[in-house]
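Batch job 17 of 40 flagged for manual review because the log was empty.
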Amino acid sequence: MTKGLSLFDKRRRRNRTALRARAGTRPRLSVHRSGKHIYAQVIDDANGHTVASASTLAGHEGKTATVAAATEVGKRVAEAAKAAGVTQVVFDRGGFLFHGRVKALAEAAREAGLEF
């Protein structure tokens, strides 16, 4: 029998608490990584809706769990956010460590024009 939270849940809570402290009114770029896909959303928490999103699900068969696919998702979510009028976000990695696919997505979003 395990007590308490998993390491993933501890990281997620620690990260979200820090985000709330420094986010202000900026939307957050939330990332979820599964074994096969990676998902990114720009969420406006003040209004409670998703401003922009991108993932490896739509039209990218064969390019799923790779750093190249995560880079492409980062570019697409940044373009969609800029089209919606969002240029500054806070990066919410959830409980995922900042390396590999998560890092590639973040760097691609920065290169495409999102500031965080």
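Reviewer: the log was empty due to a logging misconfiguration, but the result itself is present. The domain at 25-46+53-111 is CATH 3.30.420.100 (Nucleotidyltransferase; domain 5). Unflagging and moving on to job 18.
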